[in-house]
Amino acid sequence: MTSRGTVARRVLGLGLLFVVALGGLACSKKAESKAESKGGPRVLPVPVAVATAEQKSMPVQIQAIGSVEAYTVVSVKSQVGGELVKVHFKEGQDVKKGDLLFTIDRRPFEAALAQAQATLAQHQAQVRQAEANLARDQAQLENARVEEERYKKLVGGGFVAREQYDQFLTAYKTAEATLEADKAAVATARALVRADESLVEAAQLNLAYTEIRSPVDGRTGSLMLHEGNVVRSGGTSDSTLLVINQIQPIYVSFTVPQQQLSAIKTYMQAGTLGVEALPAGETRPER
């Protein structure tokens, strides 16, 4: 009785499970048939992407907020003083190296150059005159030397008086002294010419300084002096006319967390550290 009862219960249990499963299947079929009969949407299978997992190195990215700084900042100053007569650019304008920025009144420097050139011409004429005197006195010295030697022989032979020979000897010595003076005059005149040439060169340079040009490529800042003002020369801070910022290339300054410094040093030593700058509102980075 006991074994039969157990078998009976197991068979009954299987029967119940089977009925339940069939009942569930029947309910599902009925639900589908009801949904189809009502015209409801049929549920489609959801597509799933499948990929093979793999192991690889992922880049370490550190994001930080930075500020843009000019590569170089150049203060434009005047080498000469005078009235500012023309400004050849607008504030914030990009300029190239050699572009004309300012013009200072040229007239005083043109007058100084003309005066230096006139003085140079005068001293050059003095050199020519001194050289002519030197050539003349060299010829006279040669004649005096010949006469002195001739009368020296004559006085030795007793053909002329000693007094007559002394006259030619004195003339010869005078000619020698005159020639030395001529040489000194030529040297002095030539020294004056060299000094005048330096003055002319300085005057030409000052005249060239009346046109102030950009020393670098960059972007102009605020204008410190406007047309009609008097420009001061020299290296003082108040003599600055303009500041030019060189922005090609450019610096980007930023800070990183302290805990990332060791990793940054490692990548820097390995030569694999890359930095990208992303301007606000743009998606493509600047390397």
Q: Based on CA inertia axes, which overall geometry fits?
A: elongated
**Regarding quaternary structure, how should these chains be classified?**
single chain
> What is the alpha-carbon Rg in Å?
53 Å
| SSE pattern | HEEEEHHEEEEH
Uncertain regions spanning at least 5 consecutive residues = 1-31
Supply the CATH architecture of the domain at 70-248. Answer: Beta Barrel
* Overall number of strands: 8
How much of the polypeptide forms β-strand, as a percent range?
Answer: 15-25%
Helix content: 40-55%
Name of the CATH class of the domain at 70-248: Mainly Beta
| Residue-averaged pLDDT | 83
Could you give the distance between the termini? 90 Å
Describe this structure in words.
This protein has 287 residues and is α+β, with helices and mostly antiparallel strands. The protein has a domain at 70-248: OB fold (Dihydrolipoamide Acetyltransferase, E2P) (Beta Barrel). Helix content is 51%, strand content 17%. It is built from four helices and eight strands. It has a four-stranded antiparallel beta sheet with strand order 1-8-6-3, with no helix packed on it. The chain has a four-stranded antiparallel beta sheet with strand order 5-4-2-7, with no helix packed on it. α2 (107-157) runs antiparallel to α3. 11% of the residues are buried.
